User: Which sequence fits this backbone?
């Protein structure tokens, strides 16, 4: 009897993986994942069988992971939290009687937040700007409502070659509800090799520097910058 | 020269702490935290000096942690992600020239989600129902807008003795925008000792069983239950 672990490895740096995820990878004899994610955990998977595919191979990876898990201990790995824009949902949708365990990890907004300070300290939301599976009109509606509700907003998949203008349009929607000096962070490769971050504002953001390896965090009306740290106050009187 | 690590230990079970957080606790000679959190990491802190306070002692804990960090390696620990309703914000607000590092952890909604399936697979938000520092009208407005935007909604601090009706009122607001059969999960002590979970719907939720150790997750309009797992589809055609 086999098993399938659906593992979020967190941001990618091996330091930010959980003990549970690490053990599940060790216990597995087959590792399945997107080529880039597999390379991030290379030191953990020496001498293990690997099944990797390129981007947009999600269905194929999941089908193969489920099939292999009938007679093997399989780890299906992705970055961030397997349950937030990760593989947990698709696996549960596709599975029949395979033995599946979901292991959460640190999602990208938490990782990016920690790099620039404490921007997510109050009510916050995660929105993906990818329109591969969500109509763009629905995405824009969510951005508008999140802006109106004064949520701290973390944008996943903020900009790709196929939709270079969405981020600019999202910022323009948010600016209808928040002032130009609200802080914005662009964090690229948060908590893994190549990490870079930029602090700017709704008024000064340069969308051109943002790519798919970035998370963009937009503060709420009370967020501010103090000595290069992005802080959203929880409300303590200090 | 001392140092202050502001550490999110994740849900509380030692398995779900990150390698980085574990190492920072090991490296520290003084541990600061709420008594209950300290007890969760007991095996990691034998022979270390501990400064703990009861609930609502946040400012005192932070002041003490900052003071001690001038000449010691200090770990200020809380559950979940230190950057989401945790101590990272208050520390950065209060700090002057102390040496502070924020270490993220798995936030409670990620932990709770993994227990019941994959409810957070699409755009989602975290809202705290605590009105200690946020006007209740603002909280209700956020719930309404999140409901209208079809966000998956995770409610933190969903119900306490001082405000027993807020959860019921939140559910009633959401029901104006979503049908009665939308799945709801109540997860108590997610991924730590005493874990329990209930799957119900917007129409059948029994708010009386919810307490401050619980997270309540409300699905979006496409969420469904399959064999006792709560799934929010990402949109793959399968």
Assistant:
């Amino acid at each position: 009897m086999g098993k399938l672990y659906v593992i979020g490895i967190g941001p990618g740096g091996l330091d930010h993986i959980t003990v549970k995820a690490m053990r599940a990878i060790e216990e597995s004899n087959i590792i399945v994942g997107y080529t880039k994610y597999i390379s991030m955990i290379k030191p953990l998977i020496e001498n293990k069988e690997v099944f990797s595919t390129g981007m947009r191979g999600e269905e194929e990876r999941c089908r193969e992971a489920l099939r292999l898990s009938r007679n093997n201990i399989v780890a299906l790995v992705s970055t961030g939290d397997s349950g937030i824009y990760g593989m947990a949902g698709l696996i549960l949708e596709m599975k029949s009687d395979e033995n599946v365990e979901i292991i959460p990890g640190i999602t990208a907004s938490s990782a990016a937040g920690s790099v620039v300070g404490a921007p997510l300290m109050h009510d916050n939301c995660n929105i993906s700007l990818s329109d591969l599976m969500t109509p763009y009109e629905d995405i824009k509606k969510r951005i508008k409502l999140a802006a109106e509700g004064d949520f701290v907003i973390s944008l996943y998949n903020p900009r790709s070659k196929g939709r270079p203008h969405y981020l600019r349009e999202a910022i323009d929607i948010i600016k209808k509800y928040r002032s130009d000096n609200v802080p914005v962070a662009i964090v690229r490769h948060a908590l893994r090799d190549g990490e870079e971050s930029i602090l700017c504002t709704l008024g000064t953001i340069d969308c051109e520097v943002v790519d798919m390896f970035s998370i963009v965090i937009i503060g709420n009306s009370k967020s501010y910058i103090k000595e290069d740290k992005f802080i959203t106050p929880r409300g303590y009187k200090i």
Summary: Chain A has two domains: 3-106, 109-231. The longest strand of chain A covers residues 3-8.
